[in-house]
Amino acid sequence: MNTLILALFKSGDKLKLSSVCHLLNGKRTASVLTFGFFQDSLSFFGLFPTMTLEFLEKSCIGLSAKGLLSREGDHFVITEKGANLLSNQGTQLASMFDGVTYSRTAQSFFELLLFATQVVSNASYQESNYIPIDSNNFHHYQVKRWYAKHKVSSSFIADFYEEWQRLVLAIPEEKRRGLVAMLSGYTQVGQTFDQVFYQTEQYQNKLENYLAKTTLQHALIKEVTQFEKDYPLFNSLYGILLENAGNHSASETYRLSKEGHSIEFIKHKRKLKESTIVDHIIEGLVLDDTPLYSLYLPDDSKRYFEQYLSENSDFQKWRFREVVVDKSHSFLSFRTYQIMKEKERRSRAN
């Protein structure tokens, strides 16, 4: 956990703990997402939904006592000692998670997949009299819908098992046996994650156990969604889950704006406040791999910010009221420019 907290401060910036806590909680607002984006910490978004500011502060104070963080009021900054420790231990940490994409769905998808496996296995033996491993009635409804859609295919069961074989081989070898042990089916009840992994000393700390479980869940869902053609049945199940997860309001607003519709049009069509629409667009710009910056960044605003950049190069730390002293440029154009420059910087670095 210490390494994870240090990773949140890797930029070397002074960070306010409340912002860090909101990020770990998964507070899906434009300001939190932008904060996570500029800190390159969106992979940790939503990893700890119940994290409290008090617990985080206590952890940071402990790291300060070890000389790994330095406290300045309600802000903390990583020290040289902390940065050195992080470079040795935390280089792969961020790649283990994708919280901004999967924090709301990873656990539910894993549970649905295990339950669907039990359903398919028993169906292959024409067995209907068994105790479901999942007591969530909504999961029953989702899997029932999914199964009814695919059971008509003669190759459905074989295809389902083939996707499982492919998925097991795609995860790290040390996790494969444990994952298979969690599968339930005809005359077999799988073990829980704790039963499988808590037996090893590495995971006997509850926090480490939770992180290990989250890492596995993110690895599975990332494999399935990134290689859709290899997992059509699993992606179909994920699609049913997505119908009731995620920020559909924000994605719908961003879709309309990217199609070229004005904020005024969206405001009337979706009955939203202008500030909410701006937040939705900013969220979309942060998460979109192919954003259309010109829709939100007029030429005159771009020229203005380019001129300001020539004298103030640290664009991440710009404050709107300091950069735009009158109302000649919108907050949306200001934030769009910042996001554009940061993505350009990362593209050059890669």
From TrEMBL:
InterPro entries, per the entry: Helicase_HTH
Pfam families referenced in this protein's UniProt entry, alphabetically: HTH_40 (PF14493)
All residue ranges annotated as the Helicase Helix-turn-helix domain in the record: 249-295
Listed name of the protein: Helicase Helix-turn-helix domain-containing protein
Organism (species): Vagococcus fessus
